[in-house]
Design a protein that fits this description.
- With about 220 residues, this protein is of the alpha/beta class.
- The protein has 2 domains: about 140 residues, 3-Layer(aba) Sandwich (Carbamate kinase), CATH 3.40.1160; about 80 residues, 3-Layer(aba) Sandwich (Carbamate kinase), CATH 3.40.1160.
- It contains 8 helices and 10 strands.
- Strands 1-4-2-3 form a 4-stranded parallel sheet, sandwiched between helices.
- Helix 1 crosses helix 3 and helix 5 runs parallel beside helix 7.
- The longest helix has 25 residues.
- The radius of gyration is 17 Å and the shape is globular.
């Protein structure tokens, strides 16, 4: 959403697409999971008093809108892309099929996983962890707006310090706000490392893909 309160900012989407395109050029197989907060914030007032299940499904549809926007930007940048949704909507994207996703990745296509897990009560973080485990990903790279994981919220606490390396269990015990507990637990159970870094730093995606020191590493330490 860029600097706006909600919606899709074309400049920001194009920037993300260029960063991903640079990562693809390294030869890495790249799959993406997108959230829907930028759109859902705009309709949040309408969900006041609504049951959780309906609100969650609205959020899943929002992620699909973002996935299609990112697909368009990626293909404009010369990257062949497929959107796979956990909720079937065959006119706009493919249904999520694990073997088909793996085949797309083998062919050098970027796969964008939309609609979360397809189930209410599960976050986009959990969807990312689930899909990563299913496709045998080497790492989850959580691209965010801060440089990594901090001891406290750096926006409200000037004394917060960044943590370079941390174990899954420490994240859970210390209540560090990285991903929700279900996602962290799934990664821990499958020894799937997580890298948290700042997406707004130009070139950070490529650095993360190449294994360079950027952001925070979460894993078996």
């Amino acid at each position: 959403m860029g600097g706006g309160e909600f919606g899709i900012d074309p400049v920001t989407v194009d920037y993300v697409a260029r960063e991903v395109a640079s990562a693809v050029k390294t030869g890495a197989e790249v799959a993406l999971v997108v959230g829907g907060g930028n759109i859902f914030r705009g309709v949040q007032a309408a969900t006041h008093g609504m049951e959780r299940v309906s609100a969650d499904y609205m959020g899943m549809l929002a992620t699909t809108i973002n996935a299609l926007a990112l697909q368009n930007a990626l293909e404009s940048a010369g990257v062949v892309t497929r959107v796979q949704s956990a909720i079937e909507m065959n006119e706009v994207c493919e249904p999520y099929i694990r073997r088909r996703a793996l085949r797309h990745l083998e062919k050098g296509r970027v796969v964008i996983f939309a609609a979360g897990t397809g189930n209410p009560y599960f976050t986009t973080d959990t969807a990312a962890a689930l899909r990563a485990v299913e496709i045998g990903a080497s790492v989850i790279m959580k691209a965010t707006k801060v440089d990594g994981v901090y001891t406290a919220d750096p926006v409200t606490n000037p004394g917060a310090t960044m943590i370079k390396r941390v174990s899954y269990m420490d994240v859970l015990k210390r209540g560090l706000h990285v991903m929700d507990y279900t996602a962290i637990s799934l990664c821990m159970d499958n020894s799937l490392p997580i890298m948290v870094f700042n997406l707004t730093g130009k070139g950070n995606v490529v650095k993360a893909v190449k294994g360079q020191a950027v952001g925070t590493f979460i894993g078996d330490i």
